[in-house]
Design a protein that fits this description.
Blueprint: H1 10-15, E1 23-26, E2 30-34, E3 44-48, H2 60-80, E4 85-89, E5 105-110, H3 125-138
Antiparallel strand pairs: 1-2, 2-3, 3-5, 4-5
Helix pairs in contact: 2-3
Bound molecules: adenosine monophosphate (AMP).
Length: about 140
């Protein structure tokens, strides 16, 4: 069934430390790390540490924890990139644009007149690491 949580998804592997990530922030309930195919400078992802497929099966507790981290990191990213605003994206199920089936929220620092880039292009890891450091410095 498509709505069952699969613990072999790539973000579950990141949470278990089986594959690396560029960490921005974590607390007991959430992790924030950089997206490796960034669509904006500073594009990062907030996920709950407990299993959850997307917005459709999320508990109020998971959502509250994620939103607290989104609030914290979004403000830091806005400062770090001197952004004019933030776009927060969440995609649920394939038809909704979801590709990784562990709940995640995309944080995008935005600047007036600058379009978000198309998805699917691998970023320069050195640039992504510098961008992560800019956000953590602002936290
Ligand atoms: P979506 O499921 O469409 O909301 O987006 C999944 C996002 O995960 C995309 O923006 C990918 O670039 C990103 N992504 C996929 N694999 C990794 C990874 N190993 N580390 C960080 N981000 C990833």
């Amino acid at each position: 069934m498509s709505d069952i949580y699969d613990d072999q998804n790539i973000f579950a592997k990141i949470l278990r430390g089986e594959i690396p990530s560029i960490k921005v922030f974590e607390d007991d309930e959430t992790l924030c790390f950089m997206d490796i195919m960034p669509r904006t400078e500073g594009h990062c992802l907030v996920i709950p540490k407990t299993p959850c497929r997307n917005i459709l099966d999320a508990t109020p507790q998971q959502l509250a924890a994620c939103m607290a981290t989104v609030n914290k990191v979004a403000n830091a990213a806005k400062t770090a990139f001197d952004a004019d605003g933030i776009s927060l994206f969440q995609f649920s199920e394939a038809a909704g644009g979801q590709e990784v089936f562990h709940l995640h929220f995309h944080i995008h620092p935005r600047h007036e007149g600058v379009a978000i880039r198309p998805p699917g292009t691998m970023g320069d890891m050195d640039v992504i690491k510098v961008n992560a450091a800019r956000i953590t410095a602002a936290l």
